[in-house]
Amino acid sequence: MIKAHIASAAAGAFFAAAALASGPALAQQKLILKASDVHPAGYPTVVAVEDIGKKLEKATNGRLSVQMYPSMQLGGEKEAIEQAQVGAIAFARVSVGALGPVVDELNVFNLPYVFRNTTHMQNVIDGPIGQDLLDKVTNSGKGLVGLAWMDAGARNFYNTKKPIKTMADLKGMKVRVMGNPMFVEMANSMGGNGVAMGYDQVFNALQTGVVDGAENNPPSFVFDNHYQVAKFYTIDEHLIVPEMVVFSKKIWDTLSKEEQALLVKFGHEAQQEERKLWEVYEKQAMDKAKAAGIQIIEVSDADKKAFQDAVKPVWDKYGPKHADMVKRIQEVK
Ligand code: GTR
Fold first, then answer.
1. Are the beta carbons of 25 and 19 closer than 8 angstroms?
2. Which of 77, 223, 246 to mutate to test the pocket of ligand 1 (most atoms within 8 A of CB)?
């Protein structure tokens, strides 16, 4: 009697589990999609991904939602990419600088001065090239779906030692760059010593003198607090590197076609929303840097040209394999 009772309870549990795994029941299950960003709450990329979550929640009657983990709570960008690959998180918002070593085709955007200016970059990511590269990520077999692009303006050098006015001032400086050999070689070709390091370590490295400087856009420099230790910011715009929101393929495959379509739609919208937020944030960052007494150095066109000429070895080494794509990029107005 007791035995029979246990057996029927076990069978009941089995059927309950089977019912849960079936289509309509699965559709009712709530799924919280975790998202990681190295930047703090309020940063344009963080807000844009959170807004994808709000829209998803509404459109799926609460079945899908997003839980954002900002401020490197889940680690740096390398970690975020790996966590998305194994399905531990759903969204990783990362720089193409960090993603290039995983999906090599993206490295074309990591060539210094490949874009004429940020408007050129925006036109490229909004057009067929942008879509092709999102698809390259999705079809790379690396466990990621390329969902959307994000703007990150132009990157500039900053340091704790002295104003960098010309390339000669970079000589011998230990400069943190993103974890990608292309950037180490870029910094070296300009006369510095490139040190590849995760973003999660930069503030500490600047503070302790492990590096003399780093390079980044104004919002990262200011809102991630690097400006508290590095007092010299040189507007040289050596890199314009867009960012991507990638989604875990493992989690993607558990979603319905309709849900996937919603993600694609809201991803596109997030790309435009982030851009507007970015414009405002970039200005706020510069104002905050000025108010904090940061010395901002404008580089003359002639000196910019010297930086540009110096990176020829990077192009010689990495340019040829991306030649077709570089040509397509250059043709974009
Ligand atoms: C920022 C970017 C981050 C991260 C960081 C870095 O501009 O938004 O995704 O890549 O740069 O330098 O590592």
1. yes
2. 77
